[in-house]
Design brief:
The chain is mostly helical. The protein contains 5 helices and no strands.
């Protein structure tokens, strides 16, 4: 990728990833409010907002983060399978996106129940606690992926070593060929 396209891809990736983290943090706050409030109308509002936030903000940002991360890794020297930290981010992002889609089924069930009835502390208690626990776990995973992006821990995969050695061999061959060509006498 050209430097301009690479920066555009990086900007899109950082924006979608940080947006995903922020949206999940807001989701966690709403889930906590819905779980702990004594006001049925506040609980109803929180759970209806969770469903909207989940489907129209969090899910699109998760897919945008995954897609832009793939573009960024394939278009840069980091590569998709060369470094363990990139591979770890990929695995965590794919897993988080898959679990998010499963989680949204629970969100929709709780939101549907909230739309139909006044939720008391005992209504769907297990599912409401699950919303908080899942959101807290998602925040932890997304903070981990962010930290991996910032710290970029060392560690090259076996594939990465092979590619790196091939690139070194190609550079050595090219350098040797240039030296041979420059030392050869020129014909007049």
């Amino acid at each position: 990728m050209s430097p301009g396209i690479r920066k555009l891809a990086l900007t899109a990736h950082v924006t979608s990833s940080v947006g995903w983290l922020g949206a999940v943090a807001a989701f966690l706050a709403l889930a906590l409010a819905g779980l702990t409030t004594q006001d049925p109308e506040q609980a109803r509002g929180a759970y209806l907002a969770l469903e909207l936030t989940g489907w129209y903000v969090i899910v699109p940002l998760a897919f945008a983060s995954l897609l832009t991360g793939l573009v960024q890794s394939l278009g840069s020297t980091w590569g998709l399978f060369r470094h363990y930290w990139v591979l770890a981010k990929l695995v965590l992002t794919v897993l988080a996106t898959f679990l998010l889609l499963l989680h949204m089924q629970v969100v929709s069930q709780v939101a549907d129940a909230a739309a139909r009835t006044n939720l008391s502390a005992s209504n769907l208690g297990g599912m409401r606690v699950q919303l908080v626990a899942d959101a807290a776990a998602a925040v932890a995973v997304l903070v981990t992926t962010t930290a991996l992006s910032i710290y970029k821990p060392r560690g090259i995969t076996r594939y990465g070593w092979r590619v790196q050695n091939e690139e070194r061999a190609d550079r050595s061959s090219a350098t040797a060929a240039e030296k041979t060509a420059s030392s050869a006498p020129t014909r007049a």
